[in-house]
Amino acid sequence: MGPLQLVLVATAAWALWRLFRHYILRSPLDNIPGPASSSFIYGNLKEMFNRHGWGFHDTIIRQYGPIATVHSMLGARALYVYDPKALNHIILKDQYTYDEPGWFLEWHRMIFGPTLIATTGAHHRKQRKLLNAIFSIARMRDTAPIFYNVAHRLRDAISADLNQGSGEINMIEWFSRAALELAGRGGVAYSFDALEANSENSEFGMTVKQYSPTTIALHFWRILSPYASLYIPRVVRLALGRLVPHKDLQRIQMIAHAISAQSKKIYDFRMAAFQRGDEDAVREISEGRDVLSYIIRAGLNSKEERLPEEEILAHMSGLILGATDTTSNALARTFQLLAEHQDVQDKMRAELADAAPDGEDIPYDQLVHLPLLDAVCRETLRLNPPIGLLAREARDDIVLPFSQPVHGRDGSLINEVPVPKGSTVFISVRACNRNPLIWGEDAAEWKPERWLQPTPKSLSEARVPGVYANQMTFLGGDRACLGFKFSQLEMKVVLAVLLRSFRFLPCNKDVYWNLAGITYPTLGKDSDKLELPIKLEIIGGQY
What we know:
Blueprint: H1 3-23, H2 45-48, H3 54-64, E1 67-71, E2 77-81, H4 84-93, E3 98-99, H5 102-112, H6 121-134, H7 137-161, E4 166-170, H8 171-188, H9 203-209, H10 211-215, H11 219-229, H12 234-243, H13 247-275, H14 279-287, H15 291-301, H16 309-340, H17 342-355, H18 364-367, H19 371-383, E5 389-394, E6 398-407, E7 413-419, E8 424-428, H20 429-433, H21 436-439, H22 457-462, H23 484-499, E9 502-505, E10 511-514, E11 520-523, E12 533-538
Parallel strand pairs: 2-8
Antiparallel strand pairs: 1-2, 3-5, 4-12, 5-8, 6-7, 9-12, 10-11
């Protein structure tokens, strides 16, 4: 039996087992209310993983609250959760039972190799221990000048693009280019984009930005990926993927190849120069402040911390992709909101002027503690997390407790639910960040001033298990985003430089934020082009 036949047999067996479990066996999750399945095959997944799926998620939140049951593939039950006590168990207390789903791990291993988000257990903890040191406060302090250099080039390019000191600009394009350059310079000591006026985004930059919109259309294929991996080697799977007549599947292959090839090119160039004793290359690896230099240096100094080339390349690809998409979209959201709230923009500009009266770069330790700047970043990331939905899979049978009882379908009050092994648990980051029981009745409003006031009792008592600002945006536990300080510094440096140079004004066009693995903006709901137009005016004498 050939590999393709084995995959078909395994998939059919899996489907029959799922049907048996759905129609013959009852699940403990059946008593938890939730929306009806809309598809025999897909359950609720097509509504959940749809670029226009905001209404479906809001309906779950409004009708069923912090704990609900939804339907996955072939009738499988899954939980939809944003209850803080339940999240504490999923993210912290029982985090090794609730791990990344097998399809998520296998998908990222297939696309990028053994990157941090694709490993588990001792392997994951070893990787995390090494990478943790890279994102320390001391290293961020050293990285700030690199980020300022990129932000100044971004400012100059935007200024040159403005006609007679003002105009409308598609800011998502500039932020995407800047975020890629920030990730390149700070992550792998490589310049992807000169950020010159009247220049276009690089082909590589445009390729990276296609990743998130493409993956949202491939959720069904992602779920099937573990079954293919059982019988078909990665190289063969990638080759087969290029032959399947499915535009999104072929596009994701192209994106993965482009990012991996770029990582390989950068790594080979730097290692070849280092091995032949090139003075600049030796100094870069010995003293460099970027992530790649640190990984190579750690491996040279300690066998225990040495990583195989495949793993280094996977980390490079993961950093380039993750740091580009999330940061650019977070910056775009922030400037869009500031354009709509001129009073906050003016107050931020005054705060920055007080910190640096002569327009000089604000030192790291002062920049990260500017109250309003920090409040704006926190509030934007709370209200509009770039990644709004995550998934976990129960590795064993386990009981999940709730902070408040749920009314079961049978009329009983439920304080906890047994979660069978293999069940999927969807974590609604966005719903937790907007939960009025935690954040108050104005939870759905953008109010940076909430961070300038004492922490409300409801927030401190909720014990939200996030690593950042009592919110779930960067997650928590051993799966928390390691680079959240890196991302925060990028945002604050760009805000500090651009707000002292330009005034941002709304363009009154229909900007629509699409639901995806990482949300992204378009003009209207039907466009596939990333756009976020904002009006800019140069502020005289600021640089």
